[in-house]
Amino acid sequence: MKKIGLIVFCCLVSILSASAQYVVIKTNGLYDALTCPNLGVEFSLGRHFTGDVSGNYAPFEITKKESLKHWLVQPEFRYWPVERFNGHFIGLHGYYMDYVFKKVDLPFGMNKDHAYDGVGYGGGISYGYQLYLSPRWSLEFTAGFGYGYFEYDKFVMKEDKQEYLGLYKTDYWGITKAGISITYFIK
């Protein structure tokens, strides 16, 4: 819980230091489609640079036996060749997540016969494009590639019991960010 408080504090300090600059709030439609609540804030760091912090929180259980509980924080530093919030951008992003997945089929060898309780972190590079819709609204497309490290306790699901299998560690190279976001400018 202390980590969450520190992350929120750093985000607020960053936003307040943006003073009379642009601040944007956003939501990622890909996560929305998966019924995963999310919110992002992006702020100007100069004519060609912005800082972005996005987060997801899914405290829901599908059923008593099935779970996709997780939270995720994704900070990103972006460079805009033309000007901030206009057209193409490239970025460096990181992420940290905490999760409990039970009885669901997921990529990367995670299947519904097991439960996974762990953390993941990593980072990568991203590319995106922001499409102007109106003076206050834009549509943002972004994708990122990078590295992730996952450490988790693995359990076998047997009827109403879980049998502990051990601590597992996994390295991952691949997609680390994806988004189609609707953004709103606060001036």
Would you kindly provide a written description of the structure presented here, covering whatever features stand out?
The protein is mostly beta strands and 187 residues long. The chain has a single domain (2-99, 123-144, 175-186), classed as Beta Barrel (Porin), CATH 2.40.160. The protein contains two helices and eight strands; from the N terminus they run H-E-H-E-E-E-E-E-E-E. An eight-stranded antiparallel β-barrel has the order 1-2-3-4-5-6-7-8. Strand 3 (49-58) and strand 4 (67-79) form a beta hairpin.
CATH class: Mainly Beta
Q: Can you tell me the residue ranges where pLDDT is under 50 for at least 5 consecutive residues?
A: none
What structural category characterises the helix and strand content? mainly beta
Order of helices and strands: HEHEEEEEEE
If you average the pLDDT, what whole number results?
A: 87
CATH fold name, please? Porin
Helix count from the secondary structure assignment: 2
Number of strands: 8
**Quaternary assembly:** single chain
Compact summary:
With 187 residues, the chain is mostly beta strands. The chain has two helices and eight strands; from the N terminus they run αβαβββββββ. It starts with a helix and ends with a strand.
Tags for this model:
about 190 residues, mainly beta, Porin, 8-stranded antiparallel beta barrel
SSE diagram, text form:
Elements: H1 2-17, E1 23-28, H2 29-33, E2 38-44, E3 49-58, E4 67-79, E5 87-102, E6 114-132, E7 137-158, E8 161-186
Antiparallel strand pairs: 1-2, 1-8, 2-3, 3-4, 4-5, 5-6, 6-7, 7-8
